[in-house]
Amino acid sequence: MGWIFSFRHLFYPKEKLLWAQIRIIRETDKAILADNGREFWIPKSRINRIRLKNNTFEIYTQESTVG
Predict the structure, then answer these.
(1) Model-level pTM greater than 0.90?
(2) Which residues contact 18 (CB under 8 A, 6 or more apart)?
(3) Most buried one in 17, 20, 53, 60, CB count within 10 A?
C-alpha cells in the first residue's frame, strides 16, 4: 500500500471522469463521431461506460476527452 501524499500524486494527479451527454453521428470499429456542440472523434478505448438516459446517450470518460 502506497503513501497517499507521494510526489507522484502531486505532479501527476489522476484525471477526473465524468458523464457527458452526446449525440452519436457515426460509429466505426475503433471510434465514435460524437456531437455536443462540436463534432469530434472519441476512441472507444477512452470510453469507460455508455448509458441511455431520457433518450440521450451519455458516456463516462475522462474530462479531457470531451473537454
Answers:
(1) no
(2) 60, 61, 62, 63, 66
(3) 20
